[in-house]
Amino acid sequence: MDDITYDVRVYKTEVYKGKRVTTYTVRWKVARKPWKEPFRNSAQADSFRSSLLTAARKGEAFSVITGRPLSWKREENATTWFAFSLDYCAAKWPYASPNHRRGIAEALTDATEALLTTGDGAPAGSVLREALRTWAYSGRLQNGEIEPPEQLASAVRWLERNTVDMSDLAPDRQGPQLARQVLDRLSRRQDGAPAAGSTATRKRATFNNAMEYACEQRLLPVNPLTLVKWTRPRVAQTLDLRVVANPDQARRLLDAVRSQGKRGERMVAFFAVMYYAALRPEEAVDLRRDALVSLPDDGWGELRLTHAEPRSGSRWTDSGKPRDRQPLKHRAPGETRPVPIHPELVTLLRHHIKAFNIPADGRLFVGPRGGIMTDRTYLGAWHKARETALTPREAASPLAETPYALRHAAVSTWLGAGVPAAQVAEWAGHSVAVLLRVYAKCVAGQEEDAKRRITDATRPKDV
């Protein structure tokens, strides 16, 4: 056979340090014909060179045409990482929420950057990421775009040719090394700084699920992540009590929202449902008048939540709008959540419905022009309220930095008042385990009361 040879010589890896990128090039000869393969990091280059040396020392035949061992010969139906990632994303898309879709795209984009075979001819990093996030893992699935947009077409074609084969992730090939490279990339931001622990953990979970899917599809014999020891980043799991507003501070903030004219008056009850009823912002945005089970003239009322409208971005929703109506978080479609309405909130809601003529089936809260309440609208009002309502020292602290802190304040108040954890969990839409983990300091942190009890217990008895 004229197209194979055993005449192979592998040279030392060459290192070229450019102004922006250092390139590691593996050079070798097959039947006196020179070959080279550039890599972005030394570990990948060393692994590739070692594989060549191992094949040569075992006496394996090399292809004169490809310069690689015949055992590496890519079959016509071989699957590259890029092709596999497209298939994986398509399999997940119909069953994932918009926010989950975005998270999958972010993790796969980072992983792809770590699984490139070469940097030669690569498009700019920003173009590469745009091709992955906005077309490969989004537009292709959302809009059924068969071909990428013209400005991204060349980047997509380059990706089709320059990602590792899935077989390279097998344990007897480069699986552990490549898995380590991916984990290192997922643990860092684009600028090289360490990523938040929660972000790295979330992205690692996505990549792990992709590897399990590869095993399910018989593309891999074993998940390569199981061969790598990885220290899970520390993630803060308890609430930072500095963000929690006390009742006086919360009322000051609501008054400061009200003082912002007609626009502010429209948003007082919006923020109030987060503080008095522990609604998430996306639940408050979706709240309809028919969810208000009772608003009595006096005493407590009740509402029953059915949906939420989280802001995910137009690239990830089925409708192409920034928000899609979804089932309640952590609940199956059709499940509801009862929440008591504090008497002060009852008064605010009754006034809001009357003042703004809310129809029986209408949204409780809309923007100044009648559309959906946008993040930009309510965040602007909230930041202005903080500047007005809080003292300089309070404003400089994390106290109520975001409207979500009002929900934390509500749950903290309920727990501090002695409401059983199971009841608070039902009202807030948590599991009891998550509630006790996140709000542990609120449950066990009644410091002043604890100190008083200790003082009473240790006070000397009168003789």
Itemize the secondary structure elements and their pairings.
Elements: E1 4-5, E2 8-10, E3 14-17, E4 22-30, E5 33-39, H1 42-57, E6 62-63, H2 81-92, H3 98-114, H4 125-142, H5 150-161, H6 175-186, H7 197-216, H8 247-258, H9 261-277, H10 281-286, E7 292-294, E8 301-305, E9 307-308, E10 326-327, E11 337-341, H11 343-355, H12 375-389, H13 392-395, H14 404-416, H15 421-428, H16 432-438, H17 440-444, H18 447-458
Antiparallel strand pairs: 1-6, 2-4, 3-4, 4-5, 7-8, 8-11, 9-10
Helix pairs in contact: 2-3, 3-4, 3-6, 3-7, 4-5, 8-9, 8-12, 9-11, 9-14
Task: Describe this structure as you would to a colleague.
47% of the residues lie in helices and 10% in strands. It is α+β, with helices and mostly antiparallel strands and 463 residues long. Strands 2, 3, 4 and 5 form a four-stranded antiparallel sheet that branches. A three-stranded antiparallel sheet has the order 7-8-11. β7 (292-294) and β8 (301-305) form a beta hairpin. The protein is elongated. The termini are far apart. The model has no long low-confidence stretch (mean pLDDT 86). Keywords: DNA recombination. Residues 304-327 have a biased composition (Basic and acidic residues). Residues 303-339 are annotated as: Disordered.
